[in-house]
Amino acid sequence: MRRASGPEPVTVLGKPRVPPALQNLLLIDLRMPGMGGIAVLNALQKFERPPFVMVLTSFQKEEDIYRPIRAGAQGYLKKDTTEVEIVAAISVVLDGSGISPAILPRGLPIG
Predict the structure, then answer these.
(1) Is 54 helix (H, G, I), strand (E, B) or coil?
(2) Fold adopted by 7-94
């Protein structure tokens, strides 16, 4: 895992011969240099096979959570989430289970 600017995942994953292993999951922040997280999510949704995306951020207002989920993120984690919780959330997303209720604050509906 390494840090990248907002446009980098869109550029790299948009290349025709990206190995499938690199297309599985992205962890992004809502604020990144060059392109914000929502813009990255919107761009990735245009791909034939968009990667799973989880937002890892310090923002925690309801709208901060709804916007990325509506834009295609499969998960939303705060930066103070433990390593064990991050791994568990990633497992849920990669299993294809969608958005785990444990990933979102209690009582926060997605729709």
Answers:
(1) strand
(2) Rossmann fold (3.40.50)
